[in-house]
Specification:
- Helices cover 33% and strands 17% of the residues.
- By secondary structure, the chain is of the alpha/beta class.
- The chain contains 11 helices and 13 strands.
- Strand 11 and strand 12 form a beta hairpin.
- The strands form 3 sheets. The chain has a 5-stranded parallel sheet with strand order 7-6-5-8-9. A 4-stranded parallel sheet has the order 2-1-3-4, with helices on both faces. A 4-stranded antiparallel sheet has the order 10-11-12-13, with no helix packed on it.
- It folds into 3 domains: 142 residues, Aspartate/ornithine carbamoyltransferase (Rossmann fold, 3-Layer(aba) Sandwich), CATH 3.40.50; 155 residues, Rossmann fold; 44 residues, SH3 type barrels (Roll), CATH 2.30.30.
- The structure holds N-carbamoyl-L-aspartate.
- N-carbamoyl-L-aspartate binds next to helix 2 and helix 6.
Length: 362
């Protein structure tokens, strides 16, 4: 069954097709109001969420479908020790499509391997968040008129911020994208993102710590919150939490055409005084998320009816072992430790769930 686990599961052409559908939905909402009649979306949220879950639910309701699900792990059988594989098999009996958010990296992938309905990753730990990226891309497309030839600044928690990981994976496939990574040293982009995404796609990027230095160059500023829930040490969070605060004064040096995006929720990183600035696009971005999720649900249900399958990958099972405590394989004992070869010349492999790197000696 075709699912959306990582944003690169879709080609740039498919993402354009989704943006075109979203624009058509915006222009002609009545045309879509019965498109999902008698279809059910299950939302399985093992981690808190306001906009992602509700925008999925609003998207399905606006398509004429129904929704069921839960919004905290304690109200599901997982709290009794049920595996992700079993949960997804059960949900396949009750719904036509499901969206999963989970604190462990790779959990939606495990669900997709076991479900007989399409699975949408609605955020897995600090790993990725492809539907937020779809909202981000439609916002950039509508506000800037293009996705190519842009200088994009990503600011804040680039280590744990899954939205930045997915956004960079998507943007680096477009021409002329320059990236400025703005973060405290402790919260820099993970090494696998730099190697496998930026370097591999020959992206022009720099890492800096000063937002003020970056601002005049940017077409898009992507602000993010410091991800308190992913810190092992609360004192480190306390020290870093107010690293960046965007104010009207700082914005004076930015281009008039620059757009400010934020996946939300914001904590302190954008002053409310910025909200009335025409460059502040974050509330429009939240609305775009609903339209993109409508387009996505339509696409995946159509492909499920046509019997499209996820491509099979060559993997190495139970030879290398993942030691990332945030990986789904760290909590599900019966899950195979599964790696994909990423560099045969060096014997490098990546965990299929969380992308932890290992080397295998020949
Ligand atoms: C983001 C997330 O959950 O990763 N929020 C969202 O989906 N809109 C960003 C965040 O929580 O900081």
């Amino acid at each position: 069954m075709r699912s959306l686990i990582d944003i690169t599961d879709f080609s740039p052409e498919e993402l354009q097709e989704l943006m075109d559908t979203a624009c058509d939905i915006i222009a002609n909402p009545e045309k879509y109001q019965d498109s999902c009649r008698r279809k059910k979306l299950a939302t399985l949220f093992f981690e808190p969420s306001t906009r992602t879950r509700l925008s999925f639910e609003a998207a399905m309701l606006e398509l004429g479908g129904n929704v069921l699900g839960f919004s905290e792990a304690s109200s599901s059988s997982v709290s009794k020790g049920e595996s992700m594989a079993d949960t997804s098999k059960i949900l396949s009996c009750y719904a036509d499509i499901m969206a999963i958010r989970h604190p462990k990296e790779g959990a939606p992938y495990v669900a997709a391997c076991n479900a007989s309905i399409p699975v949408i990753n609605a955020g897995d730990g600090g790993h990725c968040h492809p539907t937020q990226t779809m909202a981000d891309m439609l916002t950039i497309y509508r506000e800037c008129g293009r996705i190519e030839h842009l200088t994009v600044g990503c600011c804040g928690d680039l280590k744990y911020g899954r939205t930045v990981h997915s956004l960079l994976s998507a943007l680096t496939r477009y021409e002329g994208i320059k990236v400025i990574l703005i973060s405290p040293k402790e919260l820099q982009l993970p090494e696998y993102m730099k190697q496998d995404v930026l370097d591999k796609n020959h992206v022009d990027y720099v890492e800096i710590t000063s937002l003020e230095e970056a601002l005049p160059q940017l077409d898009v500023l992507y602000m993010t919150r410091i991800q308190r829930e992913r810190f092992d040490d609360a004192t480190v969070y306390e020290r870093l939490k107010d690293s960046y605060i965007l104010t009207p004064e700082k914005l004076e040096s930015a281009k008039e055409t620059m757009r400010i995006l934020h996946p939300l929720p914001r904590v302190n990183e954008i002053s409310v005084k910025v909200d009335d600035d025409p460059r502040a696009a974050y509330f429009r971005q939240a609305l775009n998320g609903k339209y993109m999720r409508m387009a996505l649900i339509l696409k995946l249900l159509r492909e499920a009816e046509a019997g499209l399958q996820m491509p099979r990958e060559d993997t190495l099972d139970n030879v290398l072992y993942c030691d990332n405590p945030n990986c789904i394989s760290s909590v599900e004992q019966e899950l195979p430790h599964r790696f994909r070869p990423t560099n045969p010349a060096t014997g490098e492999y990546r965990c299929i769930y969380c992308e932890t790197k290992k080397h295998k000696k020949n």
